[in-house]
Structure formats: structure tokens, C-alpha cells
Amino acid sequence: MVPVGSAALAGAGYWAVLSRCCGRVVVAPLSGSAAYSSVPVLSSREGQQREASTRRRARTPQITRTAPPRTERMAVDQDWTSVYPTAAVFKPASVPLPIRMGYPVKRGVPPPKEGNLELIKIPNFLHLTPPAIKKHCAALKDFCTEWPSALDSDEKCEQHFPIETETVDYVSAGTSIRNPKARVVTLRVKLSNLNLDDHAKKKLIKLVGDRYCKDTDMLTITTDRCPLRRQNYDYGIHLLTVLYHESWKTEMWESEKTEEDMEEYIWENSCSQKNALDTLLRIKASESVGDVTKEELLESEEVKNYRNSVIALKNEGETEKNMSQYKESVKKLLNIQALP
Questions:
Q1: Helices in 6-43 by DSSP H: which ranges?
Q2: Contacts of 71 (CB under 8 A, 6+ apart)
Q3: CA pair distance 222, 230, nearest whole angstrom
Q4: Cα distance between residue 178 and residue 169, in whole Å
């Protein structure tokens, strides 16, 4: 291959002619003088044929053969934990179920799973099937301890673990799997399981207000002001601890409380007890009965019924039932016979 000299191309009587044949460049003289090219010279007919063949190949559509989806090759008894071992987005080629989701177009059916963005948006639990959970439990079994044999009843569990904690986990379709309401923590404990005397119990009930249920003797504390569940749990335990220690404190003004300031009516050393005993002693003296002590009168059935009716009337209010019991107890106490 001999290069074409620049002097020869620049001389008089010569000029370069460029032609394109199938991507090749040819330099040819205009008249009869000789010149050389770096590529072989092809005929115009052959070049046209090659160009036409190239155009036909460009117009012919390229057919790409793809493999069938995985769902058509899955066995019925396959190991599903190998398909979805961990949490992942929805894969239509891996789920052999005719799932549809989305808005039905023209009163038809929802779109299928292929290319369905609605199925990809939401979280799924395909990795938490019953076989997968069994495998997880079997793997964690070596790190667990056996249930204590001494805790064989609910009463024993309540005795040794008096505080009951309640939390709620939510499953929702959204952009996040975390629900803000899952941070709420509720603590429940019976006051009978706490080491409280009469003064501490009454003061604790006064401090907690309507969080205490008298029928079930249950104190309920609900915390939700912190962003995390663990923080709300710690805050609830802190509140319970503060309430317990505060109830044991006795302030100076508490010794000055009168009968009207009491949280509930107390029969012992009350005006009703003194008046009832004085009345009974005068009745016994008028009947010339031997010496009767106050202790004997307090242990009698009539005085006990009168005591219970007065306590119910003072603490529960003047209901029809309490008024009827009070009436009957006064009649028996004073030995009043019904009129004929």
C-alpha cells in the first residue's frame, strides 16, 4: 500500500474525488494521471447492493426470545422460604397467584400483577409464611429458656409479676410499616398486689383519680407522649414508682383532717357509733338488764347490720336499696315492731 503524495494531489491537472462505498473512502484522479488509494476501489453496483442489504437488515424487526416467567416453572411442593427468604417488594414473576389490584378501568376487573405498581407500593408478608415462622422459631429455640414450672397458674403469675404491660402492633397499607399509634403503652396493676397500708392506698387513689377502678381494684396508666414505645414504657414505670413513694408520705396537714375531709366514711369512732352505743346502753339500763359492755354490743348482729347500712348510705349515696336497708337495720336495732 503506497500513500498518495501531497505534491501529486496539489499539482495542476489533479483534484481529489471522494466517494463513499459501504463506509470506505476512495481518492481518485479527475483525468488520466495515476494515483493510489489506501483502500480497494469497489464498483458502484456492488456498493449499491451492499447498501440495500444494510437497509433491509435495519428495517427487519429484531425478535428477542425471553425465558418464561418463574411462576410457570415452579413446583407445587417447592420451598417457599427460598423464594422469599427476607422482606422484599412484590415480584410478579415469583408469586404463582392470580393477584389483581388497582382501579378497574371501564367497569372491568383490576389490573393484573404484571407491571402493577400498586402491588409494589405496599409492604407484603410473603416472607412470613407459616413454614418460615416455624424455621425462625426452630433457629431461636436454642437461645430460649423453658417456662418456669412453678408458674403453672394465672394466680401465681399475677403474684410474682403483678404489672401487666399492653402494647398494640398495627398492620396497615401505606408508605411506611411504622404506625404512630404503636408507641402507646398501657400499664395495669392491682393495688392489692402493692405493699400499701390504708393511708397509702387512699392517698394513691386520690392521686390517680379516674385511672383507678374500684370494682376490679385495677390501676391503669397509659403513656403516649414520647415518640418511641420504649420511652413510653420507661415513663410509665417512672410514674408508677413516683406514685408509690408519694403515697407513703404523710404531710403535716393530713393530721388536721376531720370527719368531713375523709375520702370515705369510717364507722369506728364516728358520731353514729357513739350515738348508737349510748342509745343501746340507756335501753338496757331501763330494762334492768345486767352489766353490758360496749364490746358486746358492737359484736351483736343488730349493731353490725346497722353499721353496714350506715357505711353504704354515706359512701354510695341515698339509693332506694340503701334507704331500705337502713330502715330495716334501725327497726331491728331499736326493737321496733311493725304496726298491725
A1: 6-10
A2: 93, 94, 95, 96
A3: 13
A4: 9
Residue with the three cell numbers 398486689: 193
**H/E run at residue 143:** none
Rg of the chain (C-alpha set): 49
pLDDT (0 to 100) of residue 6: 44
Give the distance from CA 75 to its chain's centroid. 36
Nearest CA-CA partner of 254 in 206, 311, 312, 193: 206
Residues in contact with 200: Cβ distance below 8 Å, sequence separation at least 6, in sequence order:
247, 248
Q: What are the tens digits of pLDDT across the range 201-210?
A: 989 998 999 9
SS3 225: coil
Both ends of the chain: CA-CA distance in Å? 151
Distance between CA atoms of residues 181 and 228, nearest Å: 10
Task: Specify the pTM.
Answer: 0.53
Q: pLDDT tens digits for 254-277?
A: 877 777 777 777 888 788 888 888
- Sign of torsion over alpha carbons 79, 83, 84, 85: positive
Is it the case that residue 62 has pLDDT exceeding 70?
Answer: no
Question: What's the one-letter identity of residue 308?
Answer: N
Query: CB of 190 within 8 A of CB of 219?
Result: yes
